[in-house]
Amino acid sequence: MAAIAPLSAALLTVVGGAILFSSLGHNSVDAFRAFFVTPVSDLYGIGELSLKMAPILLCALGLAIGFRGNVWNIGAEGQLIVGAICGGGFALALGKIDGLWVIPAILLTGAIGGMAWASIAAVLRTRFNVNEILVTLMLTYIAGLLLSYLVYGPWRSPTGFNWPVSSDLAASARLPRLIPGTRLNLGIVMSIVFTGCAWLFLARSHLSYRMEVVGLAPRAARYAGFDEHKLVWTSLLIGGAAAGLAGAIEVSGTIGKLREVVSPGYGFAAIIVAYIGRLHPVGIFFASILMALFYVGGEQIKVTLGVPSAITGIFQGMLLFSLLMSDVLINYRLRWYHNRPIATKGNTHAVS
Amino acid sequence: MLSVDLLTAILVATLGAGTPLALAAIGELVSERAGVLNLGVEGMMLVGAAVGFVATAESESMVIGILAGMGAGIGLSLIFAFLTLTCLANQVATGLALTIFGTGTSALIGAGYTGTVLVVRDSFSIPVLSDIPVLGALLFSLEPMTYLSLVIIGGVWFFLFRSRSGLVLRGVGDAPAAAHATGMSVILIRYMAVMFGGAMAGLAGAFLSVIYTPVWVENMTAGRGWIAVALVVFASWQPLRVLAGAYLFGGVTILQFHIQGASLGIPSQFLSMLPYLATIVVLVIMSSDAMRVKLNTPASLAKPFRAEG
Description:
The structure holds 2 protein chains of 2 kinds. By secondary structure, chain A is an all-alpha fold. Chain A is built from 13 helices and no strands. Chain A has helices at 4-23, 28-37, 43-68, 76-94, 102-128, 132-152, 187-204, 206-216, 218-223, 228-255, 266-276, 281-305, 311-331. Chain A is globular and about 75 Å long. Chain B starts with a helix and ends in a 13-residue tail after the last helix. Chain B has a single domain (4-117, 133-296), classed as Orthogonal Bundle (ABC transporter involved in vitamin B12 uptake, BtuC), CATH 1.10.3470.
């Protein structure tokens, strides 16, 4: 049952996409193939898909844990950027130092960076009662500007022809690739391991149970004596750590240096993925594949049909819209009726 | 040192920079007063900006362009209204989806127009009166849209607190069940409030792309929609305070350009952070008193309403 709404939402989005493509003057079958099939029809394509899936999956799992407890961390994008800054900065500082500990240390630095960034929102929410939606979002803009400052200023590569990029990371600081002939790296393995951990945490820990009670029935949670502040902190720290880890993976794995843009909105896409996956690790796993497909499809269609890759954003929005709409059809029964002569007016809308 | 002329120029620029914020925030205020939290302001502004720009470029008429931007904002707000009011979807999630959708849509609409520059008309000023030193420039040579925003905000204040319909709207936001029991159509009123919010966000976006910086750049609103949402909290849901907040933020933006121009050696990125930092600081100041926030917030904000019986 739980999968009906997400599946019908995916279907609705594909139909909506076909309409969109034909309204842009493209043959919708060709466009559909270029968007959904061509990019994943060879091994390299599958590698690219998994490459994009890893950060989305990590961010979405972290966010879902918070969303269950009504902690609206929507700044995973900013936490990812700070994770990239910290992990990348640490890697740059290490230079050519080699050792088995190097890569774990870089990833850990990234995760701590993301946690630190999210903890600003946690302090403000628990100490000053400030809404975390707006704070995490403002912090995302600030993180982007911070990264821009670093790559235009102190961290700019002396050999980069004045481009806003840092020096390349040393080979010892790069995540090992998994399959020759693809760009796929260890990041996807880590994100899948994290999926398992998230499932264990959500299904088996008392802490996550308390968080869920706070989300579903805040007053009951208060009577039961659950400490709301602790839950806000847990949510934001886990979310920040996951996003920060994703940022460090992007820099150490996919990109190999710091540049002005390290993520095409993975942190925002993760919000949608968390919803489509019903805030459940298994659902999120599959939803992140779909979302990664939107990204590779968007890039493909830009090359083959010249359609702006912004179309990915439209698909993301449509997907969430159709999920929210499908939910209504599942949670409520449609009943068509004419206004009956009863005392109250105003209940003319169809959903009842 | 600051000359009188420079100071006047800064003040005039501040009012200009505050105008889109004031417009978007007053729209969101009306929507929230009716109990609907629409976090899609940023998306509606962006689509308003893109549609406004394209329509102006094609029709060569600013009025048509701005009206088209407003229409686009209303269109997007209707998606939001249908999902949250008719389908009872979660308002926070729907608003976020609207912003993501709007960001993508605006990039698609504006794609062919990056680099196009609109022909800017001569600056506007009221003859004779605008020649009065300082005051003349401040009062009589502003953007027409700034005057319009003042009229709108005054109008919203009058509507909310001096008219019966405004009382009904506030009632719907505070106690929808009671309003429903007295025969008000809660859903219809909320639809109209959300549409007003969309119109204002579209207007604010179109003002940005057609008049304020007459070029189209992807993501050109740069978080102004979100700052507008924060401004409503800052203003404690009071229309006239929205104006004060908008000009405060306009001032921060303009100050940033002037510090940059003074070449004090502060990297531009840090100066660009100022509006976002200011938003956080303002939110901290306004929210720390939990009781006051509770008293000011419309009682049914973001809670779905379903008519029983």
